[in-house]
From TrEMBL:
Pfam families: adh_short_C2
Organism: Cognatishimia maritima
PANTHER family assigned: SHORT-CHAIN DEHYDROGENASES/REDUCTASES FAMILY MEMBER
PROSITE patterns hit by this protein: ADH_SHORT
Protein name: Gluconate 5-dehydrogenase
GO molecular function annotations of the record: oxidoreductase activity, acting on the CH-OH group of donors, NAD or NADP as acceptor
Family: Belongs to the short-chain dehydrogenases/reductases (SDR) family.
Amino acid sequence: MRDPRHLFDLTGKVACVTGASSGLGRRAALALASAGAQVIVVARRADALDSLCAEIGPESAAVATDIADRSAMEDIAKEIAAPFGAPDILVHAAGLNTREAADDVTDHGWDQTLAINLSAPFFLSQALVPAMKEKGWGRIVNFASLQSTRAFPGGIAYGATKGGVGQLTRAMAEAWSPHGVTANAIGPGFFPTELTAAVFNDPERAARNAAQTCIGRNGTLEDIDGPLLFLCSDASSYVTGQILMVDGGFTAK
């Protein structure tokens, strides 16, 4: 019997994390590197990526680019694969929430939210999956949300994309898991990130959200480590097409 402690070991794997300049994406990159993976971090802010790579060390590399630019996806995929080879693990943590009320949603806000939250995870995966299929092993982790199933004020565009991420995850699993490539999603509750700054800057609102969980608190960045490593490793080899809610029981109440 294989020692279960080795199930989470990512030594020899290459991971790519989008949205790695801050928040849960940054934390994901650090967790994957700590588990032994070589990590490619992707975002638009080159300075933030350089700082992250300096913290991780030589087993990391940065790709500063706009993943919403679909016309450049082939070039982006090549740039991601250049430092360590094609990635085995792809974590889609990049996200945008314009927080526009339904009556105020603009064409630009809608299109950008859709491009970053839903289109980019699919088209970047489509570009990188062939190499995973050749190896017979791959892990895709999308980022869903509380708003994949709940409606929040000012979240109609964001919620529509995150609902789409749930179905995208299931469809990816159906298409690619026969080739050894699993696709799952993490659905974070309230974590302190740039996207949720408006929530955590309002102590009363943050406390109200914490009280709505079963555990009684909001998330901390380290709460994402275990669920992420599970979905990115051999530990989850028979798990695909699932959304793992990491929300302290927010959606259970």
